[in-house]
Structure formats: structure tokens, C-alpha cells
Amino acid sequence: MRYTHNIHLIRKRKHTLKISLIFSLFLLVLILFVGFTTLDAKLFFLGFLESLWRVCISYVVALVISLLLMLIVSSTSVVESIFVPILDVLQSFPSFAFYPLFVLWFGKTATVTILILIMEMIWPLLFTVLTAQKQIRLDLSEAAKSYGATGFKFLRFVELPLLFPALVTGSLISWGEAWEAIIAAEIVVSVPGVGTYLAQAGQSNQTHILIIGILLLLLILFLINKYLWLSLLNLSTKYQQE
């Protein structure tokens, strides 16, 4: 299984901050050195925003589906024994294999890219929360239920907070995989986005613009990961079980 093992991240804040600043400055200087003025900034950032909203929508849908599947799979041991092997096989199936079917149903539209992204993002989310749910301490569950936390209350006030670290970790992985997939998806489907912009630069032999675009995209995603996901990752330590 690709996502059924715990992921342990070492957090050295001061050291990481220095590396982050150095890396950001290096990329920024490199972009300026290569020649930022040759990049059509308007087209690039409009394309990036197009891609960003597709990733965000896909993430929300994948998160909801993952939590629903978690509740279904963990309902009984019989259901778990049936569904976990099936889901494990499905996660190994390449998402782009469904591309011809999606195009047949929806045509070459943004919907196809979103569906491909959902199928990429759902697996790290699902298997990290399933693994984390297995590790919820039995005494905590029994204590919560003895105080009346059953059903939705148990999910809202006990299970979700304890699963928060796993959700953040799974989100971080799925976010990275989504950006890997969306570049290819936008190129194949031919819809507006940062992937299409980079592909057009490559097809027109504008190597310098392609390099600048890749570096700028790398810098933006690095900053998002640093100030959004890693911040949430640090916050999630408050909900870890002792």
C-alpha cells in the first residue's frame, strides 16, 4: 500500500526557516536574472488561478468522499475486510486511464481535469485517515462514549480532532500529487491553465519563458506549502495522542 504507513516529519523550525528564506531568495534572483520581463505575467497568473481553483475544488470533493468512505469502511470488520483490498487495488490504478471515458461523457472540458484530480487526491487522504483511525486509543473512545459522545457527536468532538494530524499529512501529499497531475491533465484536455501556458511556451521553442514559468510556479507552490500546509502541520501536533 502506498499510503498505509505513518509519515513522520522532523520539524526544526529555525533551521527550516533559514532554508526556506535562502531557497525563496535563490529562486527569485534566478527568475529575475533569466529575465522576468519576457514572461507574460498576466497570462501566467490567470492560468495559475485557473489551475488553483480546480485543485481546491478537487481537494474539497476528495476530502468529503474520503471521510464518507472512512465511515463506511470502519463501520464493521466485515465491511472493512471486503472494501480495503478493493480500495487498495483501485489506488494503484492510473487515473489517466479513465481519461477516454471522462471525455466521452463530458467532452474536453475542465470537468475532466477535476475528475482526474479527484482520483489522484482521494487515496492519500483516505488511507492516512484509515490508518490513523486504527490507532485511536480505545480508552479515549470508551471514555467519550461513556459521557454520551456517540454518533455525530463522537465524530465531531472526538474522532475528527484525533484524525486532524492525519488529515493534514494526507492533504499535504494529495496537494503535491494534484499539482503533478494537473499540468499533464490541462495539456491533454487543452483547457486554460498554467499547464497549458507552459506547454505553449515549450511548443513555440520559448525555452527561457518555459524556464521562468517553471521556476515561478515552483516558488509559488513552495510558499503555499510553507505558509499554509506546514503551518497546519505544526498546529496538528496539538491533537496528537500521547
Describe the structure.
- About 80% of the residues lie in helices and about 0% in strands.
- With about 240 residues, it is mainly alpha-helical.
- Helix 8 runs antiparallel to helix 9.
- The protein is flat and about 60 Å long.
- The two termini are about 25 Å apart.
Quick rundown:
The protein is mostly helical and 242 residues long. The protein contains nine helices and no strands. The chain is flat.
| Mean pLDDT over the full residue set | 78
Number of helices: 9
Percent strand equals: under 5%
Cα Rg: 21 Å
Approximate shape: flat
Within CATH, the superfamily carries the name MetI-like
SSE class:
mainly alpha
> What is the name of the CATH architecture?
Orthogonal Bundle
Tell me the number of structural domains: 1
Q: What is the distance, rounded to the nearest whole angstrom, between the alpha carbons of the first and last residues?
A: 26 Å
Low-confidence residue ranges: 1-14
**Can you give the helix content as a percent range?**
over 70%
The fold-level CATH name is MetI-like fold
List the helices and strands in order.
HHHHHHHHH
Q: Main β-sheet, in a few words?
A: none
What is the level 1 CATH name? Mainly Alpha
Strand tally is: 0
List keywords for this structure.
242 residues; mainly alpha; MetI-like fold; 9 helices; disordered N terminus
Secondary-structure topology with pairs:
Elements: H1 13-34, H2 41-73, H3 77-91, H4 99-106, H5 110-134, H6 138-146, H7 152-189, H8 194-203, H9 207-236
Helix pairs in contact: 1-9, 2-5, 2-7, 2-8, 4-5, 5-7, 7-8, 7-9, 8-9
